[in-house]
Design a protein that fits this description.
Mean pLDDT: 86
Number of helices: 11
Helix content: over 70%
Distance between the termini: 58 Å
Number of strands: 0
Order of helices and strands: HHHHHHHHHHH
Number of domains: 2
Largest sheet: none
Length: 264
């Protein structure tokens, strides 16, 4: 197959990879950390403002990914990156125009955008598999979701309960997935301290759920034990993809449940 090399294309494009794929995260876990908090925000505040804000976050994240990879040495995928930046601004303006709390939304999008772009440039578009950075990533995306939900009109108590429950679930997932993949992939390491971080996150979810009047939402991370019991750990490297997809499915269900159960 003939491949034409033009200015602005990346090394991957020369191998037949489309330029727009430079906007996408390569780590499967990043998909969960990005998408699941946005699903939660949409459940907590299903408004035009929240939906447009979520699209702005996704577009901005894609642009940050591409810029970070350009810093690492790849040629910048200029057209997709510019389009992503334009869409991030358009969706951001739509979100702010329809938000009952535009100040909160402006602060959320500008703050998240600044931290996200600086972070991706620092990490050169490739987040390391270090628990500290991964925890910061989870916290950052949850922070964006909290801001979107509050700006969309969600009640603070619901937002706190839902975000803490999903956060604890993601921390549990980080610990268990790291340990599971370390058994079948030579380039992965377990996270021994993860059990303690997970225990603290679950306890905080339970306590905050009770404190804000949504104990059912706060108790959702306890279901992670059921998730582990129903699906066997991987026995071969080829099981890694299956493990990731199952984790994403359970995480999506948890995000939806955290938003809906907090209505009780």
């Amino acid at each position: 197959m003939k491949t034409t090399i033009r200015l602005g294309e990346t090394t991957l494009e020369r191998r037949g990879r489309p330029a727009w794929k430079e906007l996408l995260p390569k780590e499967h876990g990043v998909w969960a950390w990005l998408v699941l908090p946005l699903v939660l925000a949409l459940c907590l505040a299903p408004t035009v403002s929240t939906f447009a804000g979520a699209l702005s976050v996704v577009s901005g994240f894609g642009a940050a990914q591409a810029l970070g990879r350009a810093v690492r040495g790849s040629r910048l995928a200029a057209k997709p990156t510019m389009l992503a930046l334009i869409l991030a601004n358009i969706f951001g303006f739509i979100a702010v125009a329809n938000s009952p709390h535009p100040g909160v939304l402006v602060a959320t999008l500008l703050g998240g955008g600044f931290v996200g772009f600086i972070g991706m440039l620092y990490l050169r578009g490739r987040p390391p598999r270090l628990a500290g950075f991964e925890l910061l990533g989870i916290a950052g995306f949850l922070g964006l979701a909290i801001g979107l939900a509050l700006a969309g009109g969600a009640l603070p108590g619901r937002v706190v309960a839902g975000a803490m429950a999903l956060g604890a679930w993601l921390v549990l997932g980080l610990w268990w997935i790291k340990g599971s993949l370390a058994k079948v992939l030579s380039n992965r390491q377990p996270w021994p301290a993860g059990r303690w971080f997970s225990a603290v996150a679950v306890a905080a979810s339970l306590a905050l759920g009770v404190a804000v009047g949504h104990p059912a939402a706060g108790a959702l991370p306890l279901l992670y034990g059921l998730r582990v019991a129903l699906h066997r750990a991987p026995n071969h490297a080829r099981d890694a993809k299956r493990l990731g997809l199952i984790e994403l499915a359970w995480g999506t269900a948890t995000a939806l449940a955290a938003g809906l159960v907090s209505l009780l």
